[in-house]
Structure formats: C-alpha cells, structure tokens
Amino acid sequence: MYRLNTLLLTFISGMIFIESSLAAISLPSNTINTENSVISLKIAATTKSPYFTEKNDGFLNLLLAEVGKRLNIEFDILTAMPPERALSKLNQGAIDGDFPRVSGLEKIYPSIISVPEKIVDFQFVAFSYEQCISPISFELMQKSKVGLVIGWKIYEERTMNFDDLTTIVKSSQLFNLLSRKRIQYALHEHYIGNKFIADLKLKNKIYECTPSLMVKPMYLYLNKKHHNLIPILSDTLKKIKADGTYQLIAEKTLQTNR
Predict the structure, then answer these.
(1) Of 126, 136, 201, 215, which residue is most buried, by most CB within 10 angstroms?
(2) How confident is the model at residue 91 (pLDDT cuts 50, 70, 90)?
(3) Total structural domains in the chain?
(4) Does 89 lie in the same domain as 49?
(5) DSSP string, the chain
(6) Which domain does 204 fall in, by range?
C-alpha cells in the first residue's frame, strides 16, 4: 500500500508540473486570440469600383470584411490616398497595409512584405477612342500617345521608353483625356475601366482593346512590423476560396461588358 501511494503521489506531481509548464508557454507570434482581442489595421485601397465602393459593397470591400470577421480584425480602409503616396507611407510604417498590388514590390520598398496568397487577378488592358483592329501590345503602342495613372508600377516599368507618355493622378482624368482624344491609349484595369466608361457615359466612345495586355495576380502588402499576421491572412484567404465564399462575392460584385 505504501508503494502504491508513493507512485500515485509521484504521478500527480508530474501532471501538475506539466500543466504549469504548458500554461507558461506563450502563444506563437502568428496566432491571433480571436476571442479576447481585436486588431485594427489602416489599409490603403488604391483602386476604385467595382473593387471598392462608397457603399462598401465592392468586391474587395466584401472580401476584406470576410477576412476581418474570421480573424477579429478591423480594417480601416483609406480610399483617398494616391497610389505612389500609399506605397511610400506603407514603407515608412505610417499606414499598416496597401492593396491590391503586383508582386515584387519588396525590391523597391524594403520595409513592406506581401501576403503570399493572391487577392485577385487583374486584367491589365488598353482602352482607345477607336476600335482596335489588331491585338494591341506595348511594342505597338510605343510611338503612340499613351496615358496611365501614376503609381501603377506594372505600367510604369513597361512604358519607360515610350515616346509620348502622359501620367495622371486620377483615373477619371485619364478617361476624360481619352474621350477628348488627347491620348490614343489609356492603360488601366478591365473591370475598373469599364465602370468608369459607364459612369462617365462614354459607352460607344471608348473601346477596350482585346485580348488583355497581361493578367497578373494582385496581393495585399503589410509593413514588416506586422510580419506575424502574414501566414494567418494567407491561410484565411485560402479557406475563403476553398469554401466557396470567394466565388460568391465575385459573382455578386464583378460584372463585365465583354
């Protein structure tokens, strides 16, 4: 009996030690306590409807809201910041994130990091005041009058050697220039461009050149101080796509004139 009691006491003492040791272990840095804490992030959204809308019912409005709901994150969306300034502010740490953006921007802005799971695919296209007879390309446009929005890095890199390039701060100004035939081609994104054409009542005055110049995955970038959130955000985006929520949001918000 004495031996049995001794073994029992030894076992209980061991269990108490293990339990106290586990309690002392802190949660991993990439874990969010979704029950007790709310994280607030300021995110620059440098694109327009139908991705972001004033009513918060655009594709990326709803997608980000779904991410926030699942992770207990409050996203403060900043929609008035020009694209170039947003990247600069993010690199300085003055804001927490910026999207949607092409990959590889870490090479230019060393203090930012991307969430590896893509947010959406952008169809980069050229719009013209006349119908495009043949498939358009950057080579064919090089000697033409071309306009683009400042801060769209993927276009800036491809048009560095263009003969007559006009850079604009606002997308609406770009399409107004095109409608007045001040430029021959406006470089933009398929869905956003067609929304501007509809809103500015420029249908049958501006035409989209097909096929797209390129289709590129777009990503959410955070300042490096939030590196611990990267794997969690990536995993949540994958789950939203896998369970069908992503497709439902896309069908609800993205329409095309093609």
Answers:
(1) 126
(2) very high
(3) 2
(4) yes
(5) -HHHHHHHHHHHHHHHHHHHHHHHSPPPTT---TTT--EEEEEEE---TTTS-TTS-SHHHHHHHHHHHHHTEEEEEE-SS-HHHHHHHHHHTSSSEEEEE-TTGGGT-TTEEE-SS--EEEEEEEEESS--SS---HHHHTTSEEEEETT-HHHHHHTTT-SEEEEESSHHHHHHHHHTTS-SEEEEEHHHHHHHHHHTT-BTTBEE-SS-SEEEEEEEEEEGGGGGGHHHHHHHHHHHHHTTHHHHHHHHH-----
(6) 122-215
CA distance 34 to 229: 13
51 with 167, same domain: the answer is: no
pLDDT-derived band at 36, boundaries 50, 70, 90: low
4 belongs to a structural domain:
no
Amino acid, single-letter form, for residue 104: G
Query: By the 8 A CB rule, do 44 and 80 touch?
Result: no
pTM, to two decimals: 0.79
d(CA 10, CA 1): 14
Same domain, 107 and 68: yes
The alpha-carbon radius of gyration of the chain (Å, integer) is 25
